[in-house]
Each structure stands twice: as structure tokens, then as C-alpha cells.
Amino acid sequence: xxxxxxxxxxxxxxxxxxxxxxxxxxxxxxxxxxxxxxxxxxxxxxxxxxxxxxxxxxxxxxxxxxxxxxxxxxxxxxxxxxxxxxxxxxxxxxxxxxxxxxxxxxxxxxxxxxxxxxxxxxxxxxxxxxxxxxxxxxxxxxxxxxxxxxxxxxxxxxxxxxxxxxxxxxxxxxxxxxxxxxxxxxxxxxxxxxxxx
Length: 197
What we know:
With 197 residues, this protein is of the alpha+beta class. It has a domain at 63-134: CATH 2.40.50.140. It is 48% helix and 22% strand. The longest helix is centred in the C-terminal third of the chain and has 38 residues, at 135-172. The two termini are 34 Å apart.
């Protein structure tokens, strides 16, 4: 008789402790131990995605970096999809697809070009009232690149948020779902109530 009472008492104490634990941790219906770790990791990965997106957006053209100057043309050559221009002893890059290539190759050494540079890139070339590389074309090309990059990172963020939403649903209903599904989102050691087999 005493052993039965001791076992019942242990069960009651265990159930009371679990009720207390579950009332303290209402997140995920109390099914998960230390839910703050999951939220921290999810937020950290989302912050990484957004941070990389912002960093890569700032690598493009920025009007603060524009420098309008006159430089002496010394020569040019093509390298893959770029034209490398030697202007006043320094090399600058320009997109070959946006340039008037025939106009650039027609130049001889020593002409003075009116250019706009941004870091090591030439984004506008004018010579003798002819536009060899248009600023508007470069800015439009950069804006298109930023749009496609924003779309890619938006898709990454959307997929990540869908994964987080599915994880929250699985963790809230872990005791009702099959074990193979729960294992895809959370280790069974983190669960307070074991899932169905």
C-alpha cells in the first residue's frame, strides 16, 4: 500500500511541476524546452539575410561617389564583358554592352574626354559633343540589377519566414504529430511531451 501511494505522489508531483513549467512557458503550447533559443536563431538568420541584402545594394552606383572630370585618353582594350580604359595613367572599367564601342576604338591617344567616374568605373563618357557612354544607361542598368537582387533576397526571406511559420505550427502541435514530421523541425530532446510514434 505504501509503494502505491509513493508512486502516486511522485506522479502528482511530476504532473504539478510539468503544469507549472507549461504555464511559465506558454510559447509553443509548452511543448518545447527553452523556446527562446529557437526565436533567437530564427531572428539571427533573418537579420543576416536582410543585412546581406542591404550590403549588396550599397555596392552599386551611388551619387555620392560621382566625380566629373576631364581625363586624357591613352588607350583601351576589351576584357570579357568590360572595356578597360586607360585615362591619365589610371585604368577604369566600363560595361561594353552600354558603350559606343566603335566611337571608343576610333579615338586616338591624347584626346581629352569629359567623364564621370564612380570608384574605378567610368559611367559617362563625352567627347566632342558625342556621348560614348550615357549616364542614364548606366543608372538604368544598375537599377535593374538592384531590382533583381531585391527579388532574390525577397524570395530567400519569404522562404525563411514560411519555414519559421511551419516550425512554430509543428512545435505547437508536436504532441499530436508523427515523429518523422517533428524531427524535421526540432530535435526530440527539446520536447517536453514526446510525439506520436
